[in-house]
Amino acid sequence: MKMTLLLVGRTADRLYAEGIEDYAKRINHYIPFNIKVIPEIKNSKSLSEKQQKEKEGELILKSIEDKSFVTLLDEHGKEMRSTELAAWIENKQLTARHMTFVIGGPYGFSEDVYRRADAKLSLSRMTFSHQMVRLIFAEQIYRACTIIKNEPYHHE
Fold it and tell me: What is the pLDDT of residues 54-68, one digit of tens each?
């Protein structure tokens, strides 16, 4: 199985970007993993939230492989412990050839993107910046890989 982390806009903070890059290299040790960045919408200040979500949504949908299992990181998604996420990913490896995790823009996702999604995950009931979510989720994917391989990175 291959895995893609799809992001709207570049990671602006250098420290987060370096951390994400480090985890991407680690994840690639276990599974083919890539990060795909959708450019930010130009002149977004002149757009309403809905218009911005729709424009981002069009770009997101164009960037997803046809048969990919799509999971949105969304505040209304299912919360999981790290071990549950690992078991969920391991189970998906049996049925999906490709998984795409999507971290949207500051206003969330368009209705079309929600309709395309196969699942929604939430990292926490707390709110994190979109920049920080990228790093936290990359670490959680790496942690899931080590749990699946029964390696000592994760401690109960």
Answer: 999 999 999 999 999
